[in-house]
Amino acid sequence: MIRLSVCSFLLASIALASLARGQNPSVTLQASLDNAIFSNSGTLSSGQGDLFTGRTVSHGVRRALVAFDIAKHVPAGAKIISVELQMSVTKASRGPSFGTFVHRVTANWGEGTSQATSGRGSPATTGDATWTYAVFNTQQWKTPGGDFISPASTAASVGSIGRYKFTSTAAFVADAQLMLDTPASNFGWLLETTENITSARRWASRENASSSLRPTLTIVYQTTAASVVPTGKGCNANGRSLDHTATGLPKLGNASFALNAVNGPSGGIAVLIVGVGLQNPPIPLNTNQCFLYLSVAGLGSSFGSGFDNAGTVTYPVPIPSVSSLVGIGFETQVFSIGPSTTLRSSNALSIRIGT
User: Fold this and answer.
1) Which of 128, 224, 268, 339 could cross-link 124 (Cys pair, CB 3.0–4.6 Å)?
2) Kind and range of the H or E element at 84?
3) Alpha helices, H only, 306-346
4) 129 within 8 A of 65, measured Cβ to Cβ
């Protein structure tokens, strides 16, 4: 096993790159549930169709429900710093812009198979949310039209067709923090558009054919927990994938933390590349299912070494007890060259230094 001490230069590169781009990680979530409810009937819904808000000329009030699985994508114990909801209006009634208000929902609700393409709604199916039912037709709202917190957590002025941002507020952050800390209390949000005048808006749902129009929630957070999270997989040679792993966790004071690669070519060249961020989607490098997982925009330093006779390489990275390193995150990936094989790439690791 070949060992190469790269600690000082590696950590310096990581710190500079991470600080330049901001230490706090962020994640953008796709909606896990959404639905629309219609005031003129307790049996109308839009579980798989478009979303609607506001008042129509002749068919009453519409409201939208949307939820995101925050606890699945943000580490437990993290502190949420900011939250931004983005949604797309695909049709709007004529007239001025109207306020659209986002409220935290306080009761469980459902999404069935109903599919509305107009503001008139579609017949509810089992499990749908409606104006009367949180879950059709077994669980009613305490208050018709949805159980939610007032005043709104965030709001936006919404006009014609376009993408709209509901920006971070203290209340919106508090909502997301509660949903992270107590996943059983995560019932998402309800959207309502000014309802005392004709103000109808049609919104793209999570089922929309265009992924760029679907609802998204971007969360920026802080965490002090050390973590190593793999992404993707290494490409094969002779039935063995080039696997990139870590020894231990990158905790302050962990002198034995190391980055490794196994199943490389015996006697071949190993190159560890450090960067900030992942490429989405990953970039194919050849026809052997080898990919660049690191963000091209965030590529940083590289460190060369060699695989031993067993095809293994180790890069010791002892983590000093320096508090300013807590929260710094970076990504790594290993590449192999020769002597008798073509370029191969490993999976990537997302690493966060913690306590």
Assistant:
1) 128
2) strand 79-92
3) none
4) yes
- Residue 288 CA to residue 292 CA, distance in Å, equals 12
Entry pTM: 0.66
Q: Is 329 in contact with 24 (CB distance < 8 Å)?
A: no
DSSP for 51-76, written as a single string: EEEEE-SSS-EEEEEEE--HHHHS-T
Q: Do 77 and 119 fall into the same domain?
A: yes
The CA-atom distances, in angstroms, between 256 and each of 61, 98, 314 are: 62, 58, 11
Same domain, yes or no, for 135 and 247?
Answer: no
Same domain, yes or no, for 200 and 239?
no
Q: Are residues 192 and 289 in the same domain?
A: no
Side chain identity at residue 167, one-letter code: T
CA–CA separation, 156 vs 34, rounded Å?
19
**pLDDT tens-digit series, residues 2-60:** 344 444 445 554 544 444 445 677 899 999 999 999 999 999 999 999 999 999 988 79
Which structural domain, as residue segments, surrounds residue 132?
A: 26-222
- Assess whether 69 and 51 both reside in one domain: yes
Say if residue 90 is in the same domain as residue 124. Answer: yes
Q: Residue 58: exposed, middle, or buried by beta-carbon count in 10 A (0-12, 13-18, 19+)?
A: exposed
